[in-house]
Amino acid sequence: MAPVVDAVLETVSLTAGVQPASSAVLAKQILNGAPAGLFISAHPQWMDEVEKASMLVPGTRRLLAGNDIVLVAKVGRLEPFTLSQATILGEKFTGRIAIGDPEHVPAGRYAREALQGLGLWAQIEDRLAPALDARAALLAVEIGAVDLGLVYKTDALSAEGLHIVAEFPVSARPSIRYELALIEGANETARQIYASLLAEAGRSVLSEMGFILPPQ
Predict the structure, then answer these.
(1) How far is Cα 69 from Cα 136, in angstroms, rounded to an integer?
(2) Which of 31, 105, 140, 186 has its CA 20 to 30 A from that of 47?
(3) Pair type for strands 97-100 and 128-131
């Protein structure tokens, strides 16, 4: 079950298999006719776009899980610190900070929202290293291209050789929502994955991976 959950989060299940990508890319693929059965989006905006095109199976749009944005670094490279409105974030790292492109991917938008909530965005806006998606931002930290990255907490927890150096206070945490829905014409495999993710076994796996579960 775990590999299935990991593979389909923020993915569209195509007839050829599971296709991971950013929510924006996947939504555009669906709108352009990709043979999709299941869409899981990390931001409601992209689910809205597919729903407006009348491409969702009615009644199947559901909240799957939530997440957090955290600051991550290689073990031994940066020491943990506290994030608050008084933090001088620009002094905590050298070079640039990896982030999903805020103009195109949900992870970047959530990161920007969290930093703006603490009044810290202006400190680092000119030091961004925008990445194609959340996983690419994580990879930039893993290979040592940057000191620091703004990534999903679940990605940080599963990455080897990295540690979370700072978490946002509750007051500044963005509302990160993973939604899922079946696409019109969904095959039996897509329907089975959909049901499995919403069942108790699927919820348990998501919880173990660090996702925040909505009440049933």
Answers:
(1) 15
(2) 140
(3) parallel
Half-sphere exposure of 119 (CA within 13 A, CB side): 5
CATH no., domain 69-172: 3.40.190.10
Which residues, in sequence order, are CB contacts of 95 under 8 Å at separation 6+?
A: 127, 146, 147
Query: How many of the other CB atoms lie within 10 Å of CB of 204?
Result: 14
Task: Please tell me if the domain spanning 2-66+175-208 has the same topology as the one spanning 69-172.
Answer: yes
The predicted-structure confidence for 178-204, as pLDDT tens digits, reads as follows 999 999 999 998 999 999 999 998 899
Residues 6+ apart with CB under 8 A from 141: 72, 73, 74, 98, 147, 148, 149, 151, 159, 162
Query: What percent of the chain is predicted at pLDDT more than 90?
Result: 67
Q: Which amino acid is at 36?
A: A
Among 13-17, 87-91, 138-142, 196-200, the minimum mean pLDDT is found in 13-17
The 8-class DSSP code of residue 94 comes to: S
Query: What's the topology of domain 2-66+175-208?
Result: D-Maltodextrin-Binding Protein; domain 2 (3.40.190)
Q: What is the pLDDT of residues 130-179, one digit of tens each?
A: 998 888 999 999 999 999 999 999 999 989 999 999 999 998 998 898 99
